[in-house]
Specification:
Chain B: It is a multi-pass membrane protein. Chain B: It is found in: Cell membrane. Chain B: Keywords: Cell membrane, Membrane, Transmembrane, Transmembrane helix, Transport. The complex is a heterodimer. Chain A is an alpha/beta fold. Chain A folds into 2 domains: 183 residues, D-Maltodextrin-Binding Protein, domain 2 (3-Layer(aba) Sandwich), CATH 3.40.190; 204 residues, D-Maltodextrin-Binding Protein, domain 2 (3-Layer(aba) Sandwich), CATH 3.40.190.10. Chain A contains 19 helices and 12 strands. In chain A, α10 crosses α18. Chain A is globular and about 65 Å long. Chain B has one domain: MetI-like (MetI-like fold), CATH 1.10.3720. In chain B, α2 packs across α13, α8 packs antiparallel against α9 and α12 runs antiparallel to α13. The N terminus of chain B is likely disordered. By secondary structure, chain B is mainly alpha-helical. Classes of the chains: A alpha/beta, B mainly alpha. Chains A and B meet through α3, α18 and α19 of A and α12 of B.
């Protein structure tokens, strides 16, 4: 009898612990990111829920994903996990994700978030994930002092890019700061491909995987320019992290870097002012175009009523203007809501937002394939391999690479 | 009660049947958890991986069987071929150079020199480091912008060029440099122990017969060290095949995937790229590769010993 009550008590204790508790898997552990998560925690606690932090640091989320898989397979999924892009579809296909249609309808997500973004959050036209922020990937970061000293102009198209790069080289600085990691090389290529192919063909190649475009003339041209850019990077780039490359621009060792807007955080952290100590312009020739990289939280199915309520509140809170503002100010990105007051944001973010809104209607808002927005991780990985091999090896031609690109994509489909 | 004592030594007069039984069962009882764990965690998971390699599992295991499709994809995969070639280059050079340096160092140290203990420790010390530390340190040393090349440039020799780390044709050799640096001291210790174990009367006899020193080493001592070669090769080849941390820290498989190794390929495809089927197929290929080398070698070595 006594034992039975004890058991009952234990079940209740366990039950009440999960009621209203959210457990959130994320890898935002560094400076500004950690601050943003703390804000979310605070906002959830104000609504009476308890927050269980499940941070797995390191490796761009690779280790976090491994932990997540074991947790989910053993039937112990967290409330929410930082999953983005195409992986959301994969998880939803395995039927692990919760349906958020009710919150979405009540909060009017359809009206405040562009459909290009909400499409990624939906599986089978039901909401299964919540977007947190939008990164623009096709940025060029430049150090104006270095450009002035070299007598160069900050480039707006590819021709100007190479003119400026030659001048910088002549002045003895590294023209283009680059980190030799496959995703960074893909980020650079993506910016070139967007300009050469144009938004429509970019989408055909990297989203719909049209073989004719993948091995077409334009692709060969984009690859050739991509390789040409390597000549303007330094030799020691191999294996370098992106923030080290950004730091080379900050210190004036290098003139510019093509990188997403997370690079801004590095400039700000070094005490630099946008527009004065550094400038952000669209990657050469991609004015008006926008490659987006959206961070999001996927919501896992919960058994417990309290946990479900807390999950809905979490989804709601993430998209509130208050959280969007605090979070994105810390992260360097822009809010996913297009109906927000942006008075606290800097010029780079405002430019980003303008282009985001304009490109959403013009069709120039395209998903970044280098950041898992456009295609499956299998195809993305296969493309990384081909691109990084081409970029680093002198033994393969642009035409062969384009053919290979088409082959590996077909194979991984 | 009949008790058989075929394998156990004759029991003392005071043993009871219960103690006899214990003597038979206790070792089995103690070993059984290990056996169960090995069966499940090694052989069970080998079978499980083999099974997965025939499915189209993506980022979680699933059981839609596709036959040999994953193996076909693997053999058509340029990166996999590069990884395998790299393993041959890296493994071959690593084992050969480690053995050469190890044997030479051991022979030199065996000349009854002063301060032997200290020198031995110096050579053995790299083994105490983890491969991650070795990899990171060599990454800095070999980086043309930071390390050796930069240093020589600063000394005034601006023509000096040593860019193996960032040259996709040479990157795999930097792995050999770092791995040899780390492991040759250990091989030296193995051989030193072997040398000390050789009966000095054989050497004395050879000296009386007028054999020169190199001749004694070549014809007498090295053949006596055959078992040491055997264990050194086994240890080095398993270090080479499973090496993952060193590559991750030193080159991360780059530039491009020019210094990729099968273990790295397997990990990235199974766990980060959501291609568990392909990853499993590559793991099975690695296992098959190891078996293809080890089984004949073990067989010839162990049979040789039995006949001797």
């Amino acid at each position: 009898m006594k034992l039975k009550t004890l058991f009952l008590a234990m079940t209740f204790a366990a039950g009440s612990a999960t009621a209203g508790e959210v457990e959130v898997l994320h890898w935002w552990t560094s400076g500004g990111e950690a601050k943003s998560v703390a804000v979310l925690k605070q906002m959830m606690e104000q609504q009476g829920h308890s927050w269980k932090d499940f941070a797995v640091a390191g490796g761009g989320g690779e280790s976090a994903m491994t932990v997540l898989k074991t947790r989910v397979v053993s039937g112990n999924a967290p409330t929410a996990a930082q999953i983005k892009g195409h992986d959301i579809q994969e998880w939803a296909e395995l039927d692990y994700l919760a349906n958020l249609d009710e919150v979405a309808k009540k909060e009017g997500w359809e009206q405040s978030v562009p459909s290009v973004v909400t499409d990624i959050m939906k599986y089978d036209s039901h909401y299964v994930a919540v977007p947190v922020n939008v990164h623009r990937v096709n940025w060029l970061w430049a150090n104006p002092a270095v450009f002035e000293k070299a007598g160069a102009k900050i480039p707006t198209n590819l021709d100007e890019f190479f003119v400026a790069a030659d001048k910088l080289k002549a002045a003895g600085v590294i023209p283009l700061a680059q980190g030799g990691q496959p995703w960074q090389e893909a980020t650079l290529f993506e910016a070139v491909a967007l300009e050469i192919l144009g938004s429509a063909d970019y989408r055909k190649a990297f989203v719909d995987h049209d073989m004719a475009v993948l091995k077409g003339k334009k692709m060969v041209e984009a690859l050739t320019i991509f390789k040409k850019m390597k000549g303007y990077t330094d030799q020691a780039a191999s294996g370098r992290d992106w923030n080290i490359a950004t730091n080379m621009v900050i210190t004036g060792q290098a003139g510019m870097q093509i990188m997403g807007d997370w690079a801004k955080g590095e400039f700000i952290a070094a005490g630099k002012k946008p527009g004065v100590d550094f400038v952000c312009v669209p990657a050469p020739g991609t004015q008006g175009q926008f490659t987006f990289n959206v961070d999001s939280f996927a919501m896992f199915k919960q058994k417990d009523k309290g946990a479900m309520a807390a999950q809905n509140d979490l989804a709601k809170t993430i998209l509130t203007p208050e959280f969007q503002e605090v979070f994105n100010l810390n992260k360097g990105s822009i809010p996913v809501r297009t109906d927000m007051d942006l008075s606290k944001f800097d010029q780079c973010a405002l430019d980003s937002m303008d282009t985001f809104k304009a490109s959403a209607t013009s069709g120039d808002l395209v998903p970044s394939f280098a950041h898992g927005m456009a295609t499956t991780s299998a195809i993305q990985g296969a493309m990384y391999d081909v691109l990084t091999n081409y970029y680093n090896s002198d033994n393969i031609s642009a035409q062969d690479t384009a053919n290979l690109l088409a082959d590996v994509v077909e194979d991984a489909m | 009660m009949p008790v058989t004592h075929t394998n156990t030594p004759a029991p003392l007069a005071s043993t009871t049947p219960w103690q006899d039984k214990m003597q038979v069962w206790l070792p089995k009882l103690i070993l059984s958890p290990t056996i169960v764990v090995t069966l499940i965690c090694v052989y069970g998971f080998v079978i499980w991986t083999g099974l997965l390699s025939f499915t189209k599992s993506r980022f979680l295991p699933q059981f839609d069987f596709v036959g040999w499709r994953q193996y076909e994809r693997l053999l058509n995969n340029d990166r996999w071929i590069t990884a395998c070639e790299n393993l041959l280059i890296f493994g071959g050079l690593f084992i050969a150079i480690c053995l050469l340096i190890g044997v030479l160092l051991a022979i030199f140290l065996d000349q009854k020199i002063q301060q032997e203990g200290m020198i031995r420790t110096i050579y053995l010390y790299p083994m105490a480091l983890s491969f991650i530390v070795t990899g990171t340190a060599w990454k800095w040393i070999l980086n043309p912008g930071l390390g050796l090349e930069n240093l020589v440039h600063q000394m005034g020799f601006t023509d000096f060029k040593f860019d193996w780390l960032v040259n996709s044709d040479m990157a795999v050799y930097t792995l050999v440099i770092a791995a040899v640096w780390q492991s040759s001291g250990f091989v030296m210790a193995l051989f030193l122990a072997g040398l000390r174990g050789i009966d000095s009367s054989i050497i004395n006899a050879a000296q009386i017969d007028g054999a020169s020193k190199p001749r004694i080493y070549w014809s007498i001592i090295l053949p006596c060290l055959r078992p040491v070669f055997f264990s050194a090769i086994i240890i080095l080849s398993h270090l080479a095949i499973k090496s993952f941390d060193l590559v991750t820290a030193l080159t991360s498989g780059g530039p491009g995937y020019s210094s990729d190794l099968p273990a790295l390929f397997m990990y990235s495809h199974s766990f980060t790229r959501g291609q568990m089927g392909l990853g499993a197929a590559s793991a099975i290929m690695m296992l098959a590769g190891i078996l293809a080398i080890l089984v004949p070698y073990l067989y010839s070595e162990l049979r040789g010993k039995r006949n001797a």
